[in-house]
Amino acid sequence: MLTITPQEVADRAEELADELLDGEGAIRLTNVIEPADLADARERIRAAPADRDGERYRVWNVLHLGEVFERMVQIPEVLAIVDTLLGDRATLGSVGANRVLPGGRGQGAHIDYPYWDVYNESAYPRRFSTAYPLNCQVTILLDDFTAESGATAWAPGTQDLLQFPNTRDEFDSRSKQMIGVAGDIVIFNGACWHCAMPNESDAERTGLLLQYLPKFVRPMEDLLTGLPTVVLERATPTLRRLLNLHGRVVDTADLPDDCAEVPEPPRDGTYRTDAGGTSGN
Ligand SMILES: O=C(O)CCC(=O)C(=O)O
């Protein structure tokens, strides 16, 4: 897997986005997360309520669990790659975590939202394709990801197939693992076949799973309902953008300057139309 430092990203963003599209479909960023943030995030995820499947725990919607997560969804070097791939109005689709404890089972090989049920052909537009990307996954390694501890496996080059593997053997024969140490970040194309692997070590293996989507794809999780007001009040412009808090009906930033008479949408999610009605879409 192509491995880079944060300092290299700015000059190589287009090459890195192309690696996600045409290359192996995954990139590792090293030395990004401060140890204190790592420890803080790990502790909060471990204490959070989760859906349990044996020794595997899925924690959903973690943005409200602490400021550390607000920082982790807007890491500039990650966003430089995400925005080059998906456009600079990209939004968050999901912010969760997958904990695989010792003895935890792996997952079935899959592709991610919005491709996740692509076998339901009738649910997708005619001529649906990978002509341009609709997803970028980011895994922040909160623990070491080793072959033994069940590091995520992915099948390089499968991002164009737009289908699930036919058999587990087909996946296993093509896959590699996203090995790394706690604090590393793996950015990958969610259209690549991938899955968590079984944890056969004696240590927990947890990944913070961030999903980014182009501005026009509906988020996978409802990230706003229940988000404490304090998070919205302290949100940076970048976080507001990632949560799609502006431009919910008309994004004036998308309009040419001579359309400046279009009113700025209010920040509370409602928008007064010329006709005087409101829409809270
Ligand atoms: O935790 C992992 O290694 C991968 C998780 C994943 O692919 C998912 O939950 O969709």
Structure commentary:
This protein has 281 residues and is an alpha+beta fold. It folds into 2 domains: 2-242, Jelly Rolls; 255-281, no CATH class. The protein has helices at 6-22, 35-47, 67-72, 76-86, 168-174, 229-234, 237-242; strands at residues 2-4, 26-29, 51-53, 56-59, 91-100, 136-141, 153-154, 176-177, 185-188, 194-195, 205-213, 271-272, 278-279. An 8-stranded mixed β-sheet has the order 1-2-9-6-11-5-4-3, covered by helices on one side. A hairpin with a 2-residue loop joins strand 3 and strand 4. The longest helix has 17 residues, at 6-22. The site of 2-oxoglutaric acid has 9 residues, from strand 10 and strand 11.
Kindly provide the radius of gyration, computed on alpha-carbon positions and rounded to a whole number of angstroms. 19 Å
Q: Looking across the biggest beta sheet, what order are the strands in? A: 1-2-9-6-11-5-4-3
Tell me the fraction of residues in β-strands, as a range: 15-25%
For the terminal residues, how far apart are their CA atoms?
41 Å
Bound molecules: 2-oxoglutaric acid
Low-confidence stretches: 269-281
Question: What is the level 1 CATH name of the largest domain?
Answer: Mainly Beta
CATH superfamily assignment of the largest domain? q2cbj1_9rhob like domain
Task: Pick out its properties.
3-stranded antiparallel beta sheet; globular; alpha+beta; 7 helices; 281 residues; 13 strands; 8-stranded mixed beta sheet; disordered C terminus; Jelly Rolls; binds 2-oxoglutaric acid; single chain
